[in-house]
Structures are given as C-alpha cells and as structure tokens.
Amino acid sequence: MINDKITKQEGGENSTNLQGQTIVINQGITYQDAKNIAVDVFKSNYLELSAKAADTARQRAEELVDDFLIEVKERNPEAINSMESPGMQYAIFTAQKEYAKTGDKDLSDMLVDILVDRAAQEERNLKQIVLDESLSIVPKLTLSQLDTLTIIFILKYSRNSQVGSIPLLKKYLEKYIAPFTSLLSKENSLYQHLEFAGCGSISLGSSNIEDSMLKTYKGIFCKGFSKEQFEATGIPMDKYPSIVIQCLQDNAKFQLAAIDEDSFEQIAKEKGVEEVDIKKLKPLMNNHQMNVEETKELIKQQGDFMNILFDVWDNSPLKSMTLTSVGIAVATANLRRKTGISVDLGIWIK
Questions:
Q1: Is the distance from CB of 197 to CB of 141 less than 8 angstroms?
Q2: What is the pLDDT of residues 301-346, one digit of tens each?
Q3: Which tens digits make up the pLDDT trace of 207-264?
Q4: pLDDT band for position 48 (50/70/90)?
Q5: Is a pLDDT exceeding 80 seen at residue 1?
Q6: Distance (Å, whole) CA 169 – CA 177
Q7: What are the phi and psi torsion angles at 5 (to 5°)?
C-alpha cells in the first residue's frame, strides 16, 4: 500500500532541539564525524586524477554526502550511527564514486534516497542486499528507464485504497501516473537493457492497463444494478442499506459500497451482514461491470497523459515486463524523487 505522508521531526514540550555545526544523535557519532568519515573514505579509495578533475570529483562527493546527511536527519536521525559500519561506508563510497563521474543531480537524488533507506538497515538482510545492489544499478539507467520501472511498479505492484470515485481516480492518475509518462519509449533496447541490468524480465505473457484497473478498482467501473436485481439474491435491499450506494456511473441504479470484493467482505462484516448474505451479494461486484473497452475509454478521459501511456503500453514490451526486487527498489526511489511520495519498501522486500 502506498503511503504518501512525509514525516518530519519537530520539537515539543520536554524535548531538546540541537542546532549548529555539531549535532549529536543518541550519544553516537556527530554529523561532522559522519561527513569526515565519508570524505576520508572517498579520498583514500578514488582513482588518481588530474588536479582539476580531482577537485571536481571531491566537490561532487562532498555535495552528495551533505545531501545525504540532510535527508537522513530529516527521515531517520538515528541512522547516522550506521556510518561507523564498513558496509555503510562502502555504500556511500559507491554512491560518491558514481556521482563524481557525472555530476548528474537526478542521479545524486536517487542515490541519496537509496542511501537513506540503506542506513536504516542495521543487520544484513535481503532489503540491505537489494539496496546495496541498487546503488550500482541506478547509474546504469536513463531517466526514461527509471520512469518505466516506476510505471510498472505503480500499475502492477501497488493498489491505492482511497480510489473510491471518478474524481479520486483522476486525482490518483494525475499524482501517480502523469509524472512518469512523458519519457516513456517503445524502443525494445530500453527494455532489453532493463533486463540486462537485473531490474526486470520480459515474459511471453502480457497484461493490459484497463483489465488490471477493472479488477483492482471494481467499484469505480460498475454499471450498476436495479433494486429488482439486488433483491433477486433473495435479500431485501432495505435489510442492509449501509452497504449500497447510488451507482457512480448511473444515478438511476445502485452499487455495493466497496472498491472490490475483499473490501466489500470486510465492510459487510463490520456492518453486521450475515455470512450467508455476504456470499449471495458478492457476485454483484462482478455481474454488473463495464467491459474492457468501456473501462479503457473512461480511463483515457482522465487526462491526455493516459493516451501516451496506453500507446506505449500496448505497443512495446512494457506490457510484458515484471520487476525484480532491485527493480522495485529503484522504482520506489524514483517515485519519491519525482513526487515526494514515500512507500514502505518492506512491503515488497522482506
């Protein structure tokens, strides 16, 4: 589940706020100590360059560390102590080394985001391994490839439970999809390189956007049923008025007040609907749906950017690609970079 809340640390009563060049977290190392460690590691291990190139590389390395320290202070202050770990020092050196080569700010933002997540992994686990690998993979990808991974992640691996109406669908698509459509490509080489980089694989099967959204957000794409059709289940409509709403597509009809079958079952139980009646009513979620063509047209109406996405999806390997754990980690980092939306990577990588 996506969570787009960004948490910030604030001071209140009986709290101590520390400011200045030296900030100590939990009696551990200071931020200045952390920066010195990172800079020293970089100077000791980076290749010998000409004086001008060396100065540029050092400046970029320090810039990345400064950005990292700002972000880690904002998102997880205690994680600063991870700088004493050889594994974390190597992770930062990897990021410094890659950013020093290009000075690409988008790349730096991605690397910093991954580093902050990496700093929170105190023990060696799958998530730590995936994040370490991601640091070396991101520099091998273009912005177009990063956006491709994020589109796949959003549409194939996530679900937003707040999408409960047409206006909310439009808002969702504008926030989560639109920022990633302008650089999409139909070129096979783009997807082949993603496969080569270990971010995903192109399968023989495929999926389409409209069918996926129709299954995920059934409540939005319901054409509605009449009172007579409801009561054909053997249940009077006035027995459970709280689980029925006016149809989103047709004011003269009704639909169940849920986004899909699972959420209907949960809501129905909370409303006191008998188990036997839940089984009788659940088919109403499936028997009065739009077809895929109608669904596709409704989705397209939510913004011109969806026409771009449908064109690329239907005419490229995009529809056949699945993501690896590294692909998911990179996709979520890119999601945060472009939108500020945070997701818990631990949902997909245990």
A1: yes
A2: 999 999 999 999 999 999 999 999 999 999 999 999 999 998 899 9
A3: 999 999 998 999 999 999 999 999 999 999 999 999 999 999 999 999 999 998 889 9
A4: low
A5: no
A6: 11
A7: -85, 135
Give the pLDDT mean for 140-160: 96
Separation CA 260–CA 217 (nearest Å): 6
How many residues does this entry show for the chain?
Answer: 350
Q: Which of 325, 349, 336, 350 is nearest to 114 (CA)?
A: 336
Return the percent helix, strand and coil in the chain, to nearest 5.
Answer: 60, 5, 35
Task: Give the pLDDT confidence of 83-101 residue by residue, as tens digits.
Answer: 889 999 999 999 999 999 9
Helix segments in 177-303, DSSP class H = 188-196, 209-216, 227-231, 261-270, 275-281, 292-300
- Cα 291 from Cα 160, distance rounded (Å): 22
pTM of the model: 0.82
What is the rounded CA–CA span in Å between residue 80 and residue 76?
A: 8
Q: What is the DSSP string of 55-96?
A: HHHHHHHHHHHHHHHHHHHHH-GGGGGGGGSHHHHHHHHHHH
Q: Considering the chain, what is the average pLDDT of its residues?
A: 88
Q: Where are the beta strands (DSSP E) in the chain?
A: 200-202, 244-246, 254-256, 321-323
Asked whether the CA dihedral 201, 203, 206, 212 is positive or negative, the reply is negative
Q: How many CA atoms lie within 13 A of 194 on its CB side?
A: 33
Q: How many CB atoms lie within 10 A of CB 159?
A: 12
Whole-number Cα distances in Å, 65 to 38, 39, 62, 157, 242: 7, 8, 5, 32, 54
A 10 A CB-CB count for 34 gives 26
CA 116 remoteness from chain centre: 16
Q: Do 295 and 256 contact (CB within 8 A), yes or no?
A: no
CA atoms of 207 and 195, how far apart (whole Å) = 18
Return d(Cα 209, Cα 315) in angstroms, integer: 13
CA 47 to chain centre: 35
